[in-house]
Amino acid sequence: MILRQSLGEDRFPIDVERLALEWTPVIDRDAPVTRVSERPLDGCDGALVDGRRRGKGWGIAYSDAIRHPGRRRFTVAHELGHFLVHRHLAPDGGFRCWPEDMATWDHERSPQEAEANRFAARLLMPLDDFRRQVPARARVSLAELGRLAEERYGVSITACVLQWLSLTERRAVLVMSRDGYVLWGKSSTPALRSGAFFRTRGRSPMEVPTASPAATGASEIPPDGVSHPAGVWFSGEPVVEEVIVSDRYDLGLSLLHLEDRVRNFEQREEEALDTFDLMEQRSNR
Questions:
Q1: Under 8 Å between Cβ of 59 and 34
Q2: In the chain, what are the domain boundaries?
């Protein structure tokens, strides 16, 4: 694969800024990405700036309010995804991406943002390498995914958990909450197909169960998670909940592990494309 051959096995975390500047001329030599910089963006996380009318090609900007290096890296990768896949469809001036866009993995809700997020995840956490780190059948903890995010891939724990959910054969659900209400939930394929999911779009706000540490903001959470009986998160079955509560962002991140009792499902294996192969296949659409 091209990235593995050019950068080697010891290429993590990916230097996405360098990649954007060195590889986009291969994709579009007349108007590549010529600058990646930090800027005040008035609430936006990132932007793909169209400077072609000024003879400057494209620029990628990330907000100076973002302090976590992994979140900055993911934002740059997200905007690089817009360049490679969506630049021919860009609105006047380019793309401006808000925090909720970085959490959008629902293709029906926002196809372009979901595609940019999936591209960023595959670029920073390639399928083949991620599968070597976490086998599809492994029950992995939130702490283990946090270490993988920090020490290998240099991304946020949210991005790493979402990547795991897209690949695992286990039943699990990630829930993001704030002030005692569910913002969104994301299920693994086996969980989704067994009916374990949350509908948040177009619905009244859903309260986090009072038994959840995410509802109370508990500071002391057992390392193995909290076991809940049926009826707490899902009416028909128990779950084990692992939680990270962020004082800085006032967010709760709950990973719900469900019993591995649903075995007869068909899961389509995604083709393990190298990220640069994906760039070449989709950039000229």
A1: yes
A2: 20-124, 127-258
Closest to 168 measured CA to CA, from 200, 145, 195, 201? 145
Per-residue confidence (pLDDT) for residue 144, from 0 to 100: 95
- Dihedral sign from CA coordinates of 209, 210, 213, 214: positive
Instruction: Please compute, for residue 190, the number of CA atoms within 13 A of its CA located in the half-sphere on the CB side.
Output: 20
Residue 236 buriedness (CB in 10 A; 0-12 / 13-18 / 19+): exposed
In tens, the pLDDT along 128-156 reads 899 999 999 999 999 999 999 999 999 98
CATH fold of 20-124? Arc Repressor Mutant, subunit A (1.10.10)
What value, to the nearest 5°, has the Cα angle with vertex 280 and ends 25 and 29?
A: 20
pLDDT of residue 113: 92
Q: What is the pLDDT of residue 204?
A: 84
Distance CA 177, CA 158 (A): 12
Segments of the chain scoring below 70 in pLDDT = 1-10, 108, 217-220, 246-250, 261-285
How confident is the model over 200-213, as pLDDT tens digits? 777 788 999 999 98
pTM of the prediction? Answer: 0.81
Angle (nearest 5°) at CA 244 between 238 and 249: 135
